[in-house]
Amino acid sequence: MPNRLTELPSAKIASRMQAIAPFYVMEIQRRALELEAAGRHIIHMEIGQPDFGAPPAVRDAVIDAMHRQPLGYTDALGMRSLREAIARFYANRFGVTIAPERIIVTAGASGAFLLLAGVLFERGDEVLLPAPGYPCNRHFVAMFDATPVDLNVDASTQFQPTVRAVEAAWGSATRGIVIASPSNPTGTSMPFDELAAVAELVAQRSGALIVDEIYQSLSYGRQERTILEATDTVFVVNSFSKYFNLTGWRIGWIVAPPSYVPEIERLAQNAFICPPAPAQYAALAALKPDSIKIYEERHAEFRARRDFVVPALEHIGFGVPAVPDGAFYIYADCSRFAADSFAFAFDSLERAGVAFTPGKDFRGTAAHRFVRFAYTQSMPSLVEGMDRLSRLLNAV
Ligand SMILES: Cc1ncc(COP(=O)(O)O)c(C=O)c1O
């Protein structure tokens, strides 16, 4: 009998795992939780999830569904009623008509990316992704053995690509580009006309443009738009996680050109069978006017927080070279305080009890100089966080 405790597993680990980097923010969070367990009070500005939770009507709708519905598998593309409600959201909010048949309900934006990467990309394909950018999107590309390629962006273009930069970066193996607007970690958006021009360029090159609109309804002081106003030959990803505050419920959607829907459906049937049924009832309730009213109040609260934290960070000595106009993030230059933002993030956590994310998670040429603050905490906590950082960094 082999010794069960010492026997080494012999199954290999697939080489693609080398292309999947860890999420460093989790290390920050782990240390923050350890400090909390030891009795320290920590201000959490590291995690990108709204602090509000599901509105009461959403919770009630799910409780009601649990009592009245079997909550079995639904259609792989999502419940017809939810797809129609999402189509109405586009009509009411943006004045664009989207046929419900083009809408695929998914397990969050993450489920949407998995399906799109699986349908669109394969070995030998290169896919452009702006850096700094949300790390998981590049990992979905790598999961299907395609090659994610950094398209470096900086503050001179609000950390968003220009059509000229996309044209210059597009090579013979390039098959697509993923753009998040507003972006994580910078909270900045791409001008609508520039994004529409990229869509035209990508169509000319017979490539795929995936626009991640997960932060679209969290825009401040600018008109909220969707690329679907300009073109139908685009893959739009959205989610109930951010504006709708339903992170853990795992529910989102894709709007795809009609001819791609059957392929996405086939992969969805196999990968997920269907999106989670309880979360679909939650999403239906989230789209109702009464819930939207609550979300708009929260949207205004996020704006007030941004208007407080950006000048507070600048006053402390951080640089904010591109003022965010969306999402709930501030990408701040900490080079006045440290040469290495990774060490700086851990040091600030230990000494001031304020947690934020090092730029390393998001790549890009200046990652070592930047950190990301998420203002997903109440105003009193944010005031306390800024106060602590000021005392730590401005002490003479
Ligand atoms: C830009 C961006 N896209 C996609 C996601 C994934 O979101 P979810 O799967 O919760 O919908 C996130 C989450 O932080 C994000 O920031």
Which consecutive residue ranges, at least 5 long each, have pLDDT under 50?
none
Count of all domains = 2
| Spatial strand order of the main sheet | 2-8-7-6-5-3-4
In this entry the ligands are: pyridoxal-5'-phosphate
CATH class of the largest domain: Alpha Beta
Q: Give the C-alpha Rg.
A: 21 Å
Mean pLDDT score: 96
How does the helix and strand content classify structurally?
A: alpha/beta
Q: H/E element string?
A: HEHHEHEHEHEHEEEHHHEHEEEH
Question: Helical element count?
Answer: 12
By DSSP, the count of extended strands is: 12
Q: Give the strand content.
A: 5-15%
Distance between the ends:
67 Å
**Principal-axis shape:** globular
Give an overview of the whole structure.
The protein has about 400 residues and is an alpha/beta fold. It has two domains: about 15-55 and about 290-395, Alpha-Beta Complex (Aspartate Aminotransferase, domain 1), CATH 3.90.1150; about 70-290, Aspartate Aminotransferase, domain 2 (3-Layer(aba) Sandwich). The protein has twelve helices and twelve strands. The chain has helices spanning about 25-35, 55-70, 80-95, 110-120, 135-145, 165-170, 190-205, 260-270, 275-285, 290-315, 340-350, 380-395, and strands at about 45, 105, 125-130, 145-150, 175-180, 210, 235-240, 250-255, 330-335, 355, 355-360, 370-375. The protein has a seven-stranded mixed sheet with strand order 2-8-7-6-5-3-4, sandwiched between helices. β3, α5 (about 135-145) and β4 (about 145-150) form a beta-alpha-beta unit. α4 packs parallel to α5 (about 135-145) and α10 (about 290-315) packs parallel to α12. The radius of gyration is 21 Å and the shape is globular. The model has no long low-confidence stretch (mean pLDDT about 95).
